[in-house]
Design a protein that fits this description.
By secondary structure, the chain is of the alpha+beta class. Among the domains are: about 160 residues, Lysozyme; about 170 residues, Peptidoglycan recognition protein-like (Lysozyme-like, 3-Layer(aba) Sandwich); about 100 residues, no CATH class. Helix content is about 20%, strand content about 20%. The protein contains 13 helices and 30 strands. The strands form 10 sheets. A 6-stranded mixed beta sheet has the order 5-11-10-13-9-14, sandwiched between helices. A 5-stranded antiparallel beta sheet has the order 22-21-20-15-23, with no helix packed on it. Strand 10 and strand 11 form a beta hairpin. Helix 2 runs parallel beside helix 7, helix 5 crosses helix 7 and helix 8 crosses helix 9.
Length: about 625
């Protein structure tokens, strides 16, 4: 959405920070090949007269210095400096218009299947051309050669700095934004410079940005009074319409009074499958669906559409919708395969703020992806969406949230947290650029499961996704035989370097060698059927018993999913929840009713998606 430009404040803090950006001379080439990228930053900084820590800071906010296998980001950026080239990346199509998911997921209303239309990429996604002109080289070179990519980013920063008294405005302009969003990007860069960072990149390069202390920190921009955002991010209001429509219909969300009426239990992470301007147009369409926030890829700008007290139509499961906040991230689950650091940081600050406000635990049972939301009935499972996809870095995201994953249990624990090394974990998926086509090798949060402790054994059977009983596939959209980073599972067996977990009623095996663990011991609680019960039903929503409904509210069926949870099997518990149903089928909120029952459920990690079992059917046991 266009924003008005404004000048940036020249605070004493910024002046102090800039004056400390010293030591700009290029360092000699390192003999250690893992130091090559560090040398590339130093050489480019010296060549174009850019402070080395400014160059490093900008690159970190874009890519964390990674090359991402030469693949584009979700906003068409390439290489450590995120030089954008939409011509090469291509305009992605939307999986949100595929399948049969009803975003509302409420059986009391007709299914909703609006079409988004084509996604029009913004003109700004073509910075590689400007950098190529400055270096008198080809765009392909800047996309594929990390050293040249860094030179291109340095050349752009130098151009943006020309005639300016300091580097703040140049950094802000590099974000591709104006106004508060650009200022927030620059603040994040200089905050990173102040704190410093050292990491090993996805291709094994050791890079260090040495901390440059400052006496104070920059002033973060203020936000409008009508948005629910932390002060440290740029946030704007782009309201979604609550509007009557012809045919006794209305859109595009439901008014509520959460958390007074219902506790908010989950935050659902989505990707937009569209570009910023298109997505914001959709958010303002009363005939379309809704979500609470959208976050922009290039700079982390946040737009709020629906107040968090109200219920948005975003997750395909009405129980989850009524108990969650939905956050969309500009990008594509498959076509573009990595998300910018600016987006991760902005999103983590927002989620941390919301989690504190509503008492939502910072774990993967409550901070979930759209791909972790269960189907409501057997019929809806195949059409459920699978964003943000296997390339969302949950481990890094939870580090930013201040709630790192894994490593809290004792060796030999009966419960594990999935936590592979994101960069090194590169399962082979297909379908990113067409059915059956191999996706480019990329770091991933997903761990693929096998039916036996062998790479050659078939994948598991997900009878919800594959009703004919055929094994799951390696298609990027097929989540039927994979575990996600941060999720916890009960151990079902160990065979050499292989570990099995209980998963959809089966043993799912994954390679877990001592020198490269992809799962860490955990502590927590597990559920197992009560003695005397051979199996217990599993559900996609925690609806009340029929007796709880008042006469004017239709009873909602408690429909089991097509899976088996048998005696002897154990599944990680996220705690007991009450049964609830929010009856909201009319525009007049006076007709809306929150039905709360006596029936209790336990949320479990049953497969890739969460699920619910009746508390009376299971025992809760500690796992150590």
């Amino acid at each position: 959405m266009p924003m008005s430009s404004r000048s940036f404040p020249r605070t004493a803090a910024l002046a102090a920070a800039i004056t400390l950006l010293t030591g700009l001379a290029a360092t000699p080439a390192q003999a250690d090949p893992t130091q090559t990228r560090q040398h590339d930053f130093a050489a480019a900084a010296a060549e174009f007269g850019v402070p080395e820590n400014v160059l490093l800071g900008v690159s970190y906010l874009e890519s964390r210095w990674d090359v991402n296998g030469g693949t584009p980001s979700t906003s068409a950026g390439y290489g450590p400096m995120h030089l954008t080239d939409l011509r090469e990346a291509g305009a992605a199509t939307s999986h949100h218009d595929e399948g049969t998911e009803d975003p509302r997921g409420d059986d009391a209303r007709p299914a909703l299947h609006p079409k988004a239309g084509p996604a029009t990429p913004p003109q700004g996604l073509q910075t590689v051309d400007e950098a190529a002109r400055l270096l008198n080289t080809e765009a392909k070179t800047l996309r594929t050669d990390p050293a040249q990519n860094i030179r291109g980013g340095a050349a752009l920063l130098a151009k943006y700095h020309a005639g300016r008294p300091d580097w703040y405005d140049a950094v802000a302009r590099y974000s591709g934004s104006t106004g508060a969003a650009a200022q927030t990007f620059a603040d994040e860069v200089f905050d990173t410079i102040r704190t410093g960072v050292t990491r090993t990149t996805d291709d094994g390069q050791q890079v260090t940005l040495t901390a440059t202390p400052a006496t104070t920190t920059p002033q973060h921009p203020g936000n409008p009074a009508n948005v629910e955002c932390p002060r440290s991010v740029a946030c704007e209001s782009v309201p979604a319409p609550y509007q009557e429509l012809p045919g006794d219909d209305y859109g595009n969300h439901d008014l509520a009074n959460r958390p007074v009426s219902q506790k908010i239990d989950h935050i659902v992470i989505h990707d937009t499958e569209g570009y910023w301007d298109n997505v914001l147009d959709l958010a303002q369409d009363p005939t379309y669906v809704s979500w609470h926030y959208t976050i922009r890829s290039a700079d982390g700008l946040i737009a709020q559409h629906v107040p968090t007290k109200d219920v948005a139509w975003h997750a395909g499961n009405w129980y989850v919708n009524a108990k969650s906040i939905g956050i969309e991230h500009e990008g594509f689950a498959a076509k573009g395969t990595w998300y910018t650091e600016a987006m991760y940081r902005s999103s983590a600050k927002l989620v941390g703020y919301l989690a504190r406000k509503y008492g939502i635990p910072l774990d993967r049972a409550h901070i979930i992806g759209h791909d972790n939301v269960p189907g409501t009935t057997p019929a809806t499972i195949p059409g459920m969406h699978w964003d943000p996809g296997p390339y969302w870095d949950w481990s890094h995201y939870f580090d930013l949230l201040g709630a790192p994953l894994g490593g809290f249990g004792l060796p030999g624990s009966s419960l594990v947290t999935i936590d592979p090394d994101f960069a090194k974990n590169q399962p082979v998926f297909t379908g990113c650029d067409g059915a059956g086509t191999a996706c480019a090798p990329r770091g991933s949060e997903a761990v693929v499961l096998h039916s036996e402790p062998s790479e050659t054994s078939p994948l598991l059977v997900d009878v919800g996704l594959h009703p004919k009983g055929t094994p799951s596939t390696t298609e990027v959209s097929d989540v039927g035989s994979r575990a996600a980073t941060g999720q916890q599972y009960a151990v079902a067996g160990v065979s050499g370097d292989w570990t099995a977990i209980w998963y959809l009623g089966q043993k799912g095996w994954f390679h877990n060698p001592r020198n490269a663990r992809v799962a860490k011991p955990a502590i927590g609680w597990v559920v197992t059927p009560k003695p005397g019960l051979a199996t217990v039903p599993v559900y996609g929503r925690a609806y009340p018993e029929p007796e709880a409904y008042p006469a004017n509210v239709p009873v909602q069926a408690i429909t089991p999913l097509p899976y088996t949870l048998s005696a002897g099997q154990k599944y990680s518990s996220a705690g007991t929840v009450g049964s609830e149903y929010y009856y909201a089928v009319t525009f007049d909120v006076a007709d809306h009713v929150v039905v709360k029952g006596k029936l209790k459920y336990v949320q479990i990690q049953f497969g890739y998606r969460i699920a619910f079992v009746k508390a009376d059917d299971v025992r809760l046991l500690p796992a150590f």
